[in-house]
UniProtKB/TrEMBL annotation:
<protein>
    <submittedName>
        <fullName>RNA exonuclease 4</fullName>
    </submittedName>
</protein>
<keyword id="KW-0269">Exonuclease</keyword>
<keyword id="KW-0540">Nuclease</keyword>
<keyword id="KW-0378">Hydrolase</keyword>
Amino acid sequence: MGSEETKKHPKTHLQLNPNWAQLQLKVKSNGLNKSSKHTKNPESETHNSILGKRKERLEAESDGSKPSPLTPINDDFSLTDVVAMDCEMVGISQGNKSALGRVSLVNKWGNLIYDEFVRPVERVVDFRTRISGIRPRDLRKAKDFPTVQKKVAELIEGRILVGHALHNDLKALLLTHSKKDLRDTSEYQPFLNRNGRSKALRHLAAEILAVEIQNGEHCPIDDARAAMLLYMKNRKQWEKSVKDQTRLEQKQKKRKPKKKPKLKDAAIVKAAVTAS
């Protein structure tokens, strides 16, 4: 009897309803899609990390917001013929003396090539965090001053150095730089106000670049990028003015100064005038 039932209904419990089979396929498909969303793609991560700041601009554009002019538009981190530098200071001694606390350099594309916190030789009494953005924890493992000084000297040697009030930064670094290779946005004539005085970097950035910087704690990277962008936008005219100034100085040096009469000759002339 059992063998007859088996012949009439051969393994009916293994048969699937077509609707159920479709449902299983749909569930399986959804599961695969979800797992693929959560699976990290190493190639994608590497690509995103390489993009760096460029990725930030692409994201800003996709959001519909206007990207910052200070955001680099390429991935060239090479040491270019022009570099921009900005430093932040901390207070030493009684707090009224300044010492280097951080230095940042960018290349002509605005990409960061050096950024280090610096441990001053003397004890810091005022971190000036409200302006410098530097905190005690930043200097605990910071590099010592001589190491940073040597590295910066190597990076700027033989290159055009851009910045704002560069004399302050170079003084803090105890470095000098050839005057012909300095491009200071605080001294460039078209950037001065009507009275011939320097404008603050934040004002130049707002007026010329339409970007806000130094709202609260300063970022030396942004400040260096702003100075570089100001230079690059005016590079052709700026370099022309430097060449013209150099030629003028060379002409002045070639001119022979008028010889002053010798003391003996002057006395003779004076005596002759008195006798007449």
